[in-house]
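Dear U.,

For the methods section draft, I wanted the exact inputs and outputs in one place so we can describe them consistently. I've listed the two proteins in the order they'll appear in the manuscript figures. Please don't edit the token lines directly; just add comments below if something needs changing.

First protein:
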Amino acid sequence: MRCLWLTLADPKPAYNGQHLYSGGLIDAVAQAGADVVVVGLVRPESSRRDGAREGSLLWRLADDRPLSPRASLASSLPNIAKRCTTPTMRQLLGDVLAGGQFDTVVFDGISAGWALRSVLERWPRRRNRPKIVYVSHNHESSLRRALAENHPGFLKRQALKLDACKITWLEHDLVAAADLVTAITPEDRALYSADWPHKRIEVVTPGYRGRFIAERQITPDLPRRAVIVGSFDWIAKRLNIEEFIRVADPIFAAHGVELEVVGSGDRSYFDQMQKSLVATHFTGTVDRVDRYMESARIAIVPERNGGGFKLKVLEYIFNRMPIFALEGSVAGVPLERDESIQLYPDQQALALGVWRAMDDLGRLNRLQNRAYERCRDSFDWPSRGRHFLSAVSAL
């Protein structure tokens, strides 16, 4: 199978969930036997440049900076897709479409939707067109509507509502054109199926290729510390962390609990947040997150906004961190309430739950052991690549 894979950017290095999922699936599909041409933006942090070849993978990368969010204001495209439409990217896509023959065209996330018109113009007749696959990272229309409604600022809320409308239109067009849609969780598949009952939709949850800890004991020697790992560049992630810390920091400070927030984000944002906090510390970007998990007793998922599959949950599980989370924030993982995960209805209940469990080492060790056993054999990337190609071949 010869596959054209349209994505936001080179997924290496994988600092966030989008890059982890895109990079893992691209590699898995290539390893399963496909010839893949990947089109996206260059990442300055990566050594890959246009024309790089790695086995059956060919990277076609536009060396442009993404467009400013302001560029989408006068466009029908949402910001997440408009930022890709640089002059070099448009020229590169045109050259690839003119010069290549493909069996499948993959739109990797809503950010690749800007290219849909060019693909349909290249193959105007459906019967002569390569199979089109939309790899969704979220059910974007419901996610963006919720994000807009939850933003506390009036003007920003209106801007997000407009962008959410554009995302809904683009997502509709991608699903309508697709021969196959992949959803990242069963919950997202149900949302797509409600609007598209006759559309072929396959669940392709992420794989995991990080560190596995065969055994770990949480002991009194560990600091009374909780950890939140993630990237905090996206507004949804910042809203989540702000909501939780506003409630949790005074509770933790009053009871001798530390909170470490580990991951990338704007340094000035972290510095501004840090000024009013006592128990919470922001690390910024780090080379290794595992050493921060090693020195904590509990992992927290406080995400009311964001949807989708949280890849950091797999990091927690396989690094043997007991997980305390908001209800509805951990999708696609076979964990059971009170048996392998602790779930709470709101941010205050979550913060109180973390504090009250901090010294219950027996419960913490039961949670991390049972979560590991439930997930140990369920998240390998090679099976995702085979599943993907099998689903496309069956079209």
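Second protein (the one for the lower panel):
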Amino acid sequence: MKTADLAPLKKDFVTALRIVAREGLSDAFAHLSARVGENKMLFMPRKSPALVKKKELFVVNFDKAVPQSAVHQAMYRARPDAGAVIHFHSPHAILLTLVGQTVRPMHNYSAIFYEGVPVFEGTGQVETPERAAQIARLLGPAKAVLLRGHGAVVVGKTIREVAMLALYLEESARLQTEAMKLGEPRFLESGEAEKVARQTFKPKSTERAWEHYAAAVRS
């Protein structure tokens, strides 16, 4: 992909970072990537998502280690269908892991994660390719994996999709933690959740959601 062709991707990249920051999914430490070609990705400097500029984005191949890159590179190697990856530290996703729970289907958005959301039990940072590869293997065919006491990693086909999935995951975690205060949540059965997901998670719906959140950060 030529440098000039990256302009629309860079625009979406920075918009997604602004959405993540505005919606409280992370403070200064979320990071995003987007696949460009077979073995390269568009990546960001080690900087708050609220402050990253388009001119600071850069392309790196999957074999070159740069700060915060390991989990992204591992996900692309394990998931040829992944076009974007985001790692963030949203509070309710973290909270569920602290009580040995994970996001389970219970409403329209949580049903999107009907394949399951595994929890990586290792604690601390994802600093090595070996640990990143473990997380990627644990993710399997799912859309998201939680990291115990740390946050989440989400994969999607595009930047727009992965940003919306991140928002849906945190909303699902928040509603589940609130429901647990009131009683035993009523979760959806696997088949029922998949049916709801197919009705809810469509490209047109993702685009509509993206425009909603993007409008707020453009104003």
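Candidate sentences for the figure legend, describing the second protein: Residues 3-218 form a domain with the L-fuculose-1-phosphate Aldolase fold (CATH 3.40.225.10). The chain has one domain: 3-218.

Thanks,
Y.
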